């Protein structure tokens, strides 16, 4: 059995780019030959994030090429001339200036698919913002916690959400462009952005704030203000100060949690709690939460675990670090932890592949390369082999590099996604080749699942041209009513068709079977057994359609100790280690052992408020896995089973710390007040109540920062002259920078420092959803767009996640339950009389708009 991407050669360019590294890893895991082009000093991730480099670059070859020099650029050109894909994450315009941009490389190789990853696109008002996750998140308002923050100002989290999202979207874009090449014979340019990579983190609030503005009210950018009278997730603490994240999306789940906590009698005796987890007022919701907090605080975790595990309807997880997540029983059972022997570090336990394929398994076995490994390489049969580079460990001497600036020595270039500071010919395109069809055009996906993680993955594929048909019963996806009628599903049903059938009736199942018999993909997000009980199990559907890609995108997994359990975003991310990574200091039990419930609520729990990424990480990972499965099926005609899980997806998102090996350096976490990780990577108050977000990662950049701030050159002060000295005097440097930043408004600092090549932006305090919805500069750059919602009128949303130079993406509108019943049934051969009979029999459930 060969890998899905076997036979493909991918060249990766972009020192310091997390997004390019992760995208390359996924393709390498799938069997592609991945050639990583590094500057002479090596990819700066080797020093800045050694664990991330180790995991994200497994299975790759390393080639040294200084793109500032002509020989290095020629080396890249020779590689690209025989490659299938180039993934490039350099600053906009840099590669073009060096003569190795997309147009230059595609002129050498008409088959080439060139994927460019930037922060905010190649043009526009934000194009010069450095491609660093913290800066993109600050610019887009993610650091704003609004009225629910524990202090004024932005609160930073050291997680690479924009890069992770852009990586998964890039994988889908590359595979889509390769499918286009199969039918047209030409490669093309693919563009992905960190902006689009972050967008999945806004589940529904952008719709809420726009509807609020339409009513003439002032919108809030904080998700919790939109659901303040609900408790879809409650964080509780045990007597021994272990934190448990629960999710209560549905009434029976809230009831099960109350029963386990021993408060069900109290709750059922009070009519105000009858609608839990949704209540009439925020005050009643808080009373319900207080009952849970008091109950769990009365006993140790050892008491609560068997009671929580006894009910599969209780969605919960205990707070943990990413390293602790490696030993979660279901993670281990699923095979989502693998061990790779590194020649320098020994055994490395790390996250497994993006998905589990039955016919084409992904089986990474080789660790990250040393600089210049393999020792000799030849771009093509006619090129002279390059001289061997000395093999060195992928890790810097002594493990971690001190906090602060990582210098790029030799001919290397600054880190932080800046790296070094379309047109193509595949097999002959047949007579039916249509270069104007979107990349995944011709692929039909039938979706059977609810809420966000799985449905949003298929939305992104619909943007890339797939036809997605959502099967719903008469009640519809409960997500349609979670945050107001059709508010949340403005995002999760975009570009889809809805077929509403009663799968509990024989005729309803026959309708679904006829539909799936003609489809390419069936994907379900329900727990194991649900699809099978309703006649949509793999065995039954494969008998109807042997070439079907059958996908189980589960919460925990298809089978195993937790597979029968309910799971939602906040608990799913806890398995990956979000508590340890986002708010590490405050989860230590010793910090809160003697606190009362009131003290916990006042001091600790506000500091444990996290960015909810459990669903978005799962959606993005599933997007990449689905794209791989579709790519294989479209090329071979062979079906197979694909299993993914929300917990594995979240482990993947935290994969730079979801690993263990000898002498592993600790991952950076923010200080106790969440300002940042170090003086050169944090937020600072500026004048007029504004704030900047600063991320500096090279010596030249540091000198430019000091010059713009009117400070003596760092080389002139022994405390700041080296990275080691800066780490020792980090508090002193932070105080000095804080004093200077306070002198001018953040907008002025951004203009001056961005122009000087320094990683600094104004931290937007409006919130992510408000920035996406109302920032006209994002629309001017084509990053957001206006669409006509069928119920709410004109709304703003992010543009399709990936764009292509020669084929379009697709912007679809949301669908109402059952909206496409008649059209789909007619397409399956039913007459109008037959459709009426099916409706009368209850096999097909008419839409509310019929």
TrEMBL record:
Pfam families: CoA_transf_3
Superkingdom: Bacteria
Name assigned to this protein: CoA-transferase
The entry's keywords: Transferase
Regions that span the bilayer: none
One function term, GO molecular function aspect: transferase activity
UniProt region (Disordered), positions on chain: 359-397
Bias kind Low complexity: ranges: 374-397
Keyword Transferase included in the entry's annotation: yes
Keyword Ribosomal protein: no
Organism: Frankia canadensis
């Amino acid at each position: 059995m060969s890998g899905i991407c076997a036979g493909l050669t991918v060249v990766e360019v972009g020192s310091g780019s997390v997004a390019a590294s992760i995208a390359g890893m996924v393709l390498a895991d799938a069997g592609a030959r991945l050639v990583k082009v590094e500057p002479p000093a090596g990819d700066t991730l080797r020093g800045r994030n050694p664990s991330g480099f180790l995991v994200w670059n497994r299975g790759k070859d390393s080639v040294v090429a200084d793109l500032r020099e002509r020989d290095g650029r020629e080396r890249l050109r020779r590689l690209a001339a025989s490659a299938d894909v180039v993934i490039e994450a350099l600053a906009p315009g840099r590669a073009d200036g060096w003569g190795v941009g997309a147009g230059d490389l595609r002129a050498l190789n008409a088959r080439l698919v060139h994927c460019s990853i930037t922060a905010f696109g190649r043009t526009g008002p934000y194009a010069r913002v450095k491609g660093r996750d913290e800066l993109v998140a600050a610019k887009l308002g993610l650091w704003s916690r609004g009225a629910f923050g524990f202090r004024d100002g932005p609160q930073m989290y050291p997680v690479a959400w924009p890069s992770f999202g852009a990586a998964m979207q890039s994988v889908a874009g590359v595979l889509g462009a390769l499918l286009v090449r199969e039918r047209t014979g030409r490669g093309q340019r693919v563009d992905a952005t960190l902006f689009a990579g972050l967008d999945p983190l806004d589940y529904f609030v952008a719709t809420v704030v726009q509807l609020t503005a339409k009513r003439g009210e002032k919108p809030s950018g904080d998700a919790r203000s939109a659901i303040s009278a609900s408790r879809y997730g409650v964080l509780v603490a045990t007597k021994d100060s272990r934190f448990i994240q629960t999710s209560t999306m549905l009434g029976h789940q809230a009831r099960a949690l109350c029963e386990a906590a021993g408060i069900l009698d109290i709750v059922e005796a009070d009519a105000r709690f009858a609608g839990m987890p949704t209540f009439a007022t925020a005050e009643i919701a808080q009373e319900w939460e207080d009952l849970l907090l008091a109950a769990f605080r009365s006993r140790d975790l050892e008491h609560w675990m068997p009671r929580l595990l006894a009910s599969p309807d209780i969605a919960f997880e205990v707070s943990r670090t990413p390293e602790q997540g490696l030993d979660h029983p279901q993670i281990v059972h699923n095979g989502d932890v693998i061990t790779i022997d590194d020649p320098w570090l020994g055994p490395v336990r790390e996250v497994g592949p993006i998905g589990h394929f039955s016919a084409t398994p992904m089986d990474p076995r080789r660790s990250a390369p040393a600089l210049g490994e393999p020792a000799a390489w030849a771009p093509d049969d006619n090129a002279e082999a390059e001289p061997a580079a000395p093999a060195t460990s992928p890790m810097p001497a002594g493990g971690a590099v001190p906090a602060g600036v990582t210098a790029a020595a030799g001919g290397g270039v600054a880190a932080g996604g800046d790296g070094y500071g379309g047109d193509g010919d595949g097999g002959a395109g047949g007579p039916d080749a249509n270069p104007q069809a979107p990349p995944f055009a011709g692929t039909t996906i039938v979706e059977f699942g609810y809420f966000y993680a799985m449905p949003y993955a298929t939305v992104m594929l619909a943007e890339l041209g797939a036809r997605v048909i959502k099967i719903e019963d008469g009640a519809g996806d409960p997500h349609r009513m979670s945050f107001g009628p059709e508010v949340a599903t403005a995002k999760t049903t975009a570009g889809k068709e809805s077929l509403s059938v009663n799968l509990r009736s024989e005729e309803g199942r026959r309708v679904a079977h006829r539909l799936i018999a003609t489809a390419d993909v069936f994907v379900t997000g329900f727990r194991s057994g649900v699809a099978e009980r309703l006649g949509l199990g793999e065995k039954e559907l494969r008998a109807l359609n042997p070439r079907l890609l059958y996908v189980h995108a589960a919460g925990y997994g298809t089978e195993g100790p937790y597979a029968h359990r309910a799971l939602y975003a906040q608990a799913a991310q806890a398995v990956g280690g979000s508590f340890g990574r986002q708010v590490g200091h405050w989860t230590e039990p010793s910090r809160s052992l003697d606190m009362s419930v009131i003290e916990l609520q006042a001091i600790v729990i506000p500091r444990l408020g996290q960015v909810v990424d459990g669903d978005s990480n799962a959606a993005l990972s599933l997007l990449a896995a689905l794209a791989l499965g579709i790519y294989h099926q479209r090329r071979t005609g062979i079906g197979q089973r694909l299993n993914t899980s929300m917990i594995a997806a979240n482990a993947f998102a935290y994969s730079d710390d979801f690993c263990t090996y000898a002498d592993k350096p600790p991952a950076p976490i923010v200080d106790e007040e969440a300002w940042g990780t170090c003086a050169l990577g944090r937020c600072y108050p500026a004048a007029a109540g504004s704030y900047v977000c600063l991320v500096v990662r090279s010596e030249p950049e540091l000198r430019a920062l000091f010059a713009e701030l009117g400070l003596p050159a760092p080389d002139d002060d022994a405390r700041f002259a080296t990275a080691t000295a800066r780490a020792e005097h980090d508090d002193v440097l932070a105080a000095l920078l804080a004093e200077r930043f306070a002198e001018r408004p953040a907008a002025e600092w951004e203009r001056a420092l961005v122009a000087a090549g320094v990683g600094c932006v104004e931290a937007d305090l409006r919130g992510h959803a408000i920035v996406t919805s109302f920032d006209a500069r994002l629309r001017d750059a084509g990053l957001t767009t206006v669409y006509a919602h069928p119920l709410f009128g004109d709304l703003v949303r992010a543009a399709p996640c990936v764009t292509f130079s020669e084929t379009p993406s697709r912007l679809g509108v949301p669908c109402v339950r059952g909206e496409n019943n008649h059209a789909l049934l007619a397409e399956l051969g039913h007459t109008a009389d037959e459709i009426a009979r099916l409706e009368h029999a209850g096999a097909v459930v008419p839409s509310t708009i019929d």
